[in-house]
Amino acid sequence: MGTRFLAIAGFAAIAAACAPIERSRNLNDPAVPATTVAAQVCSDCHGLDGNSVSPNFPRLAGQPGDYLAAQLRQFRSHQRSDPAGFVYMWGLSRHLTDAQIDGLARYFAAQSPAPNAEGDPALAAKGRAIFETGVPALKVPPCATCHGAHGEGSGTFPRLAGQHADYVRKQLAVFRGSEQRPEAAAMKIVAHDLSNEDIREVAEYVQGLR
Predict the structure, then answer these.
(1) How far is CA 178 from CA 45, 80, 126, in A?
(2) Residue 135, SS3?
């Protein structure tokens, strides 16, 4: 019985070793291509094309490559410690190489962003004012200054157009009230004076922005 078990185990090990790397979920293997990591691992939460359906997971399609690469490196080094970071991404990014990170950034940056559901019209209208003109009375600058007139993002500034409102609200709350994203010092200053209602309004607006 023992000999039979060892034989079966041996065959299983050989089969695993011979499994095509294009279908590998082994994040410890630096030889696994970034496109394979995207298809076999990242897609579970973010969708194969980066257009996640669940608001728990941000949409990555069309995000600037520099932004995506920077975030993955911050997850890997544990510099980004917001709940989504340490619950999901710390472990997943731990063994990613720089080449894999850069490849993942290129892959998702090249995907076409899909339209998201329109937000509440009344809230979105108020959010548009904040996005385009800021809150002058509180010296809060327009979101469009850094994120683009259409929320398209650029460089290390993320794309906001079509992002899940729930995710945007959570991240603005992190910027406003914690040190969990230390690389985003500018956003901490911007979000400091935003009210809960301001945050809700601008989040509703950007979700429906196309």
Answers:
(1) 25, 11, 26
(2) strand
SS3 label, residue 55: coil
Helices (H), the chain: 2-18, 34-37, 43-46, 65-76, 83-84, 90-93, 98-109, 121-133, 144-147, 165-177, 185-191, 196-208
18-54 pLDDT tens trace: 446 678 899 999 999 999 999 999 999 999 999 999 9
Share of the chain above pLDDT 70, in %: 90
- The Cα 77–Cα 93 span in angstroms is 9
pTM of the model: 0.88
Could you give the C-alpha distances from 56 to 52, 135, 142, in angstroms and in order?
A: 9, 28, 26
For residues 128 and 210, the answer to whether their CB atoms sit within 8 Å is no
Tokens of 169: 């609200």
